[in-house]
Amino acid sequence: MRTRKRHLKVMATMEGDEVGELKEHAEHGAQDGSMRPVAFSMSVLAVMVAITTVLGHRSHTDAVLSQNKATDQWNLYQAKNIRYTDTTIASNLLSVIAIPEANSNAAQKIAKGYADHEEKWTEDLKEEKKEAEKLQEEVKHAEARADRFDLGEALLEIALVTSSITLLTRNRLYWALGLVFGVAGILSAASVLLLK
């Protein structure tokens, strides 16, 4: 009771401007409380941006590593293809060169060795090419995942910025727009799961 009397006495001694100022501060505090959902959603959006960024970076790293493997595999294919071509040329030369009878057994052995290598490398080339193409597909898949994470990250960042405008303007339309961008960003990032 005594505190209330003191409070009324203080209020009575205040000037009109001071009372208006206190009222304005009280209203401002109430508005801040009404912005809690906006602030909370911004926090969630910030976490989603961080997660999507990390996943995007990992996808980019996977793409680079897969590209390196594919490049190595194509280099191996090319090296074997060069050996195959050289062997075929040598084999063809042996077939058209006149070889003295004394060296014909040695020439036939060499020609057979070349023919065996050609046969082996024909199979190897098919396998190496198949493996390189498989790795190239992994690169495309990793890049597609990274692109979707990048789009999701951009949309989530737009959502975060748009929602923050709500705190400045007190207009909840910006918050709703931010949430729309946020949902689009989450869907873009989640669409990675649909890639095959």
Précis, in short:
By secondary structure, this protein is mainly alpha-helical.
What does this structure look like?
The protein has five helices and no strands. The chain has helices at residues 2-13, 16-34, 36-96, 104-169, 172-190. By secondary structure, the chain is mainly α. The protein is 90% helix and 0% strand.
Reconstruct the topology from this structure.
Blueprint: H1 2-13, H2 16-34, H3 36-96, H4 104-169, H5 172-190
Helix pairs in contact: 3-4, 3-5, 4-5
- SS element count, helices: 5
Count of β-strands = 0
* Molecular shape: rod-shaped
User: In terms of per-residue confidence, which ranges show pLDDT below 50 for 5 or more consecutive residues?
Assistant: 3-16, 18-30
Binned, the helix content reads: over 70%
Strand content: under 5%
Distance between the termini: 73 Å
Going by helix content, strand content and strand pairing, the class is mainly alpha
Rounded mean pLDDT score: 80
Descriptive keywords:
196 residues, mainly alpha, disordered N terminus
